[in-house]
Design goal:
Length: 444
């Protein structure tokens, strides 16, 4: 075991006990694979503002913020108040309710392509529905995605997520699961054009406008525009997966930020205000096919059926309270954007001073540090990330070392929320200096 892991183990005896029990009850001890890291994950029992507290009582400044879902911080007062009020009205009704109408109206108001909205419970469900809707609407079968694009664990899009990108992502997938999925490289406008033009029977292109799990990489100028033009020319749909960027890059998400309007969008995370929520939304003509009263072909419509917890009132309340707060505090977006920029710039300086070859990606409130195994100045795609970087150093070594310094990150970075301040950023950079120094020493 490395020295930083030994230090971690010394600080986390109760987490170790819990992890042993967790492993006996849940294979691998986790219910989201991302949450495992060696030697064993930290068990958290409390969070507030930008702080997490583990079961031993250690506190951390959190930059993972509930899997990027919490732009207002942990337990934000407006959301907590709304949820307390909802507790007296009911937890789960399983019938239509006015809260869902209000939330859908708000999504329509803010997200440019959202002329109709269907709620579900997770992001994976939303992307599954979006692809089904695109195939149903166009009557075509093929879908193109960016290599490294993460759209959740739904079978439809579980392809070309992890290196080497060309083998099945899992055992147990249907033999033809990846058959309907083609890929292009993020930020390769020419390659994407070729793929779009060359794909017969193309129903849709689905893309995260800012590549998320694949590297925290923003689109280069013109890239999203090319996807828009080429899909239009082909009468195929453009789907933006805005489960990370929705309500993070502003109320209009990435489509508002970049001024490129897709046909469909998937939303989740921030929209649920900390409770589980997904949504697929889009142009009226397309979304009409998801209606119980919608158009049919050969007697069939597109089934975006929903589930037990669709439009759950607690979630709708949390989402509404979040959007209402965002509407009246839009200047905060600018603040976290500025702080994010400063964090990325200063992190680059700290890493350079400590002699750790790294590239810092992200935009606005998102940031990610990539530790290089081969020299480069920029990372434009998931293939670049695979070629030039060592994700294990960010996801495991950096993560544990930063935890030892009281900072919680994921994938070598995370996000800022409205409750982060300048002094948090200074604290982050101080921790980074210590950790980068140790990493440089460990490497040498
Ligand atoms: C861009 C993107 N799409 C889809 C998903 C899947 O959402 P969920 O985890 O709610 O299923 C995620 C989750 O992190 C995501 O980042």
């Amino acid at each position: 075991m490395s020295d930083f892991q030994e230090e971690y183990v010394l600080r986390h005896p109760r987490s170790q006990e819990l992890y042993d029990r967790a492993s006996a009850a849940m294979p691998g001890g986790v219910s989201h694979n991302l949450r495992f890291f060696p030697p064993y994950p930290l068990f958290v029992e409390w969070a507030s503002g930008n702080r997490l507290r583990d079961v031993e009582g250690n506190e951390y400044v959190d930059y993972w913020m509930g899997h990027l879902a919490l732009i207002l911080g942990h337990t934000p007062p407006p959301v907590m108040e709304a949820l307390r009020a909802q507790l007296d009205h009911g937890l789960q009704w399983g019938v239509v309710n006015p809260l869902a109408v209000k939330l859908a109206e708000r999504v329509k108001r803010h997200v440019p392509c959202a002329e109709g909205v269907r709620f579900c419970v997770t992001g994976a469900e939303a992307t599954m529905y979006a692809v089904r809707t695109a195939r149903g609407y166009t009557g075509r079968s093929q879908v193109l995605k960016a290599t490294g694009g993460w759209h959740g664990y739904s079978t439809d899009l579980l392809a070309a997520v992890h290196p080497p990108f060309d083998r099945p992502e899992s055992l147990g997938l249907p033999p033809d699961a990846a058959g309907g999925i083609g890929t292009f490289s993020f930020n390769d406008a020419e390659g994407a054009t070729e793929a779009i033009r060359g794909t017969k029977d193309l129903a849709a292109v689905i893309v995260e406008p800012v590549l998320g799990a694949g590297g925290g990489i923003p689109p280069e100028p013109g890239f999203l525009e090319v996807l828009r033009e080429e899909t239009e020319a082909k009468d195929a749909l453009l789907i933006f997966d805005e489960i990370i960027t929705g309500f993070r890059l502003g109320l209009g998400g990435a489509q508002g930020f970049y001024g490129v309007t897709p046909d469909l969008v998937t939303l989740g995370k921030i929209l649920g205000g900390g409770l589980p929520l997904g949504a697929v939304a889009g142009k009226e003509e397309v979304m009409a096919w998801t209606s119980v009263l919608g158009p049919k072909r050969d007697g069939l419509g597109v089934v975006v059926g929903g589930g037990t917890f669709s439009s759950n009132p607690m979630t709708m309340r949390a989402g509404l309270a979040t959007l209402e707060h965002l509407e009246t505090h839009q200047e905060e977006y600018e603040k976290i954007g500025r702080m994010g920029k400063a964090l990325r710039e200063q992190a680059r300086e700290v890493l350079a001073v400590q002699g750790v070859p790294a590239v810092v990606t992200g935009l606005e409130s998102l940031f990610q540090i990539h530790f290089l195994k081969e020299d480069t100045k920029v990372l434009r795609s998931a293939e670049d990330v695979h070629r030039y970087t060592d994700p294990r150093r960010g996801g495991e070594e950096f993560k544990v070392r930063m935890l030892n310094e009281g900072v919680h990150t994921m994938h070598g970075g995370g996000c800022l929320s409205f409750v982060h301040s300048g002094s948090d950023i200074r604290g982050f950079l101080e921790a980074l200096a210590v950790v980068a120094g140790a990493m440089a020493g460990a490497k040498g």
